[in-house]
Design a protein that fits this description.
Order of helices and strands of chain A: HHHHHHHHHHH
Shape of chain B: globular
Oligomer: heterodimer
Bound molecules: adenosine-5'-triphosphate, magnesium ion
Structural class of chain A: mainly alpha
Largest interface: A-B, 24 and 28 residues
Helix content of chain B: 25-40%
Largest sheet of chain B: 6 strands, mixed
Distance between the termini of chain B: 43 Å
Number of strands of chain B: 10
Order of helices and strands of chain B: HEEEHEEHEHHHEHEHEEHH
Number of helices of chain B: 10
Largest sheet of chain A: none
Strand order of the largest sheet of chain B: 6-7-8-3-9-10
């Protein structure tokens, strides 16, 4: 007796639910909640993390992210303009740069700046400058691509209509093209800030004093305390989420907004 | 039921220099010669329709007039500006030449009103209130004053094109260029746009219109110019060119456009 497609789908959904319930029950029965509570999410340990986790670690994570973003955006704008330049060598240089830094791990860049350059040249950047460059040069490659795509996504007719109304090239770009490009670029740019926030954990590699700890380093030092368990890392993770989840929501909100503008044009 | 020319100085002042004068215009994209020795005159207050098959170079010709395309050679004067002079003030010329595109090209991030005021304010340096007054006058002309605060995306295609006309008129141009203004519209909104263009023509606006609307060309145009393969094949009074074309190429084009169902030979 053959089942209809609908009956089969219903059965399959039933099995999936049953499986889920089974796993949940197994978890509840088998897990040692007391141990988990003490070693993974211990309120006493969390309390120990304060206020440093906010006043030092979260603050530094935000500072590193901001520094990286400022450098990334500045360099990204320059690279995007180079990529759209009518002078071919500029385009080549920009392409080379973008492909290089999108292709190598950020970790490698941090190692090069933090250890490679001091060993090779006997010269060391200030801690903040190192972070700024390391995060910025990688972010710039991604930001440049987003900006270029945004500028090119504005239909050519918009520029032509503006010029036909007597606007100069600069006026048409500033008043008509760039505002529309920015709307297109806002979601990927917000995503870039999320990536940067997470990449700022690579600062962990660099030697530094307590005042310069960011969330990951702070959590790492936290778990070496007696009886701290996993809790300090969990606390750091929650702090990351406090930054990244709202940014993700913001980015999606921008996306639906630009969709509406796009549909209307 | 005659429509008199209302407050249009162009129509009443007799001027010797034509609004558009083109002599020996050539334009090529690489090896592709798109315009080959075009001659064209549009007198002040005149309505000229440009017709011809797809790819004959009509858009290119229009775009050479306000330098959206760079012509290779030839003499062009538009609204008193020597367009082929390398030292021309392009922006000053374009202020006098309104352009209406097939796909409207309204600015989606601005309201209907702002679409009509932005370049009055930024280019003509009019005050905001003066610009808004001019814009509202022109939005009333196209029957869309009540849509002033909406975004272009909230309007139908026909309404968007009427806003685009109001936007161009708000710069008080001497001359209006239309590139297939109704080709991208739903059939039911075509009539509204044509009615406004007809009104503009009656008010004495100088117009050069690329169109496939043969009844509009026959009824509204003073002259019709037929182009094919980058040359002007035939031109003359609208009724003559459309009613009794002399050239064989014009005849076959018109019979194809006027009786689209009878087409049996692919291009
Ligand atoms: N930017 C460009 N680069 C290369 N070729 C082009 C370009 N623009 C137009 N052409 C070519 O020039 C020729 C004329 O184009 P044009 O758009 O002027 O024709 P048209 O008469 O307006 O046609 P349609 O009725 O389809 O709009 C076509 O063969 C077209 O492919
Ligand atoms: Mg065309």
């Amino acid at each position: 007796m053959a089942m209809t497609t609908r009956q089969r789908a219903k059965l399959s959904r039933g099995i999936q639910y049953a499986l889920l319930v089974l796993v949940l029950i197994a978890l509840v029965v088998l897990a040692d909640w007391q141990v988990l509570y003490e070693r993974v999410f211990n309120p006493a340990v969390i309390a120990d993390q304060f206020p440093g986790i906010i006043t030092i670690a979260l603050k530094n994570t935000l500072i590193y992210t901001a520094l990286g973003f400022v450098v990334g955006l500045t360099l990204g704008v320059i690279l995007a303009l180079m990529k759209l330049s009518s002078v071919a060598p500029y385009r080549w240089i920009a392409t080379l740069y973008i492909e290089f830094f999108r292709g190598v791990p950020a970790l490698l860049v941090f190692l090069a700046l933090g250890y490679g350059i001091p060993l090779a040249f006997g010269f060391r950047f200030n801690h903040y400058v190192t972070v700024m460059i390391a995060l910025g040069v990688v972010a710039a490659a991604y930001i440049a691509e987003s900006l270029r795509a945004g500028l090119q996504a504005v239909p050519k007719g918009q520029y032509e209509a503006a010029r036909s109304l007597g606007m100069s090239h600069t006026r048409a770009m500033v008043t008509i093209v760039i505002p529309q490009a920015l709307r297109i670029v806002l979601p990927p740019l917000t995503n870039e800030v999320i990536l940067l926030t997470k990449d700022s954990s690579l600062v962990y590699l660099l030697g530094m004093g307590l005042a310069q700890y960011e969330l990951t380093k702070f959590g790492r030092e936290g778990i070496s305390g007696a009886g701290a368990g996993l809790t300090p890392l969990v606390a750091a993770g929650i702090c990351y989420l406090i930054i990244t989840v709202p940014l993700g929501i913001l980015s999606r909100r921008f996306e639906t907004k630009t969709d509406r503008v796009k549909k209307s044009s | 039921m005659s429509t008199s020319a209302t407050e249009n100085t162009q129509a009443s002042t007799p001027s010797e220099t034509p609004a558009v004068s083109v002599r020996g215009l050539n334009k090529a994209y690489g090896d592709l010669e798109v315009l080959r020795g075009i001659d064209l005159t549009v007198n002040s207050g005149e309505v000229v329709c440009l017709i011809g098959p797809s790819g004959s170079g009509k858009s290119t010709l229009l775009r050479c007039l306000n330098l959206l395309e760079e012509p290779q050679s030839g003499d062009i004067t538009v609204s008193g500006f020597d367009v082929t002079d390398p030292d021309i003030d392009v922006d000053a010329m374009r202020r006098n030449v309104g352009m209406v595109f097939q796909h409207f090209n309204l600015f989606p991030h601005l309201t209907v009103l702002e679409n009509c005021t932005v370049s009055q304010i930024k280019v003509l340096k009019r005050s905001k209130s003066e610009a808004e007054q001019t814009a509202m006058t022109n939005l009333e002309r196209v029957g869309l004053a009540e849509k002033a605060q909406q975004r272009p995306g909230q309007l139908s295609g026909g309404q968007q094109q009427r806003v685009a006309i109001a936007r161009a008129l708000s710069m008080n141009p001497d001359l209006m260029l239309f590139d297939e203004p109704t080709s991208a519209l739903d059939p039911e909104t075509v009539g509204d746009v044509l009615a406004i263009m007809r009104k503009l023509a009656n008010e004495g606006m100088t117009m050069l219109v690329v169109t496939h609307e043969m009844s509009f060309a026959r009824d509204v145009a003073d002259r019709v110019v037929f182009m094919d393969g980058g040359v002007v094949v035939e031109e003359g009074p609208a009724r003559e060119v459309i009613g009794s074309p002399k050239h064989e190429r014009t005849q076959s084009f018109l019979s194809r456009v006027l009786n689209p169902t009878k087409v049996d030979t692919p291009e």
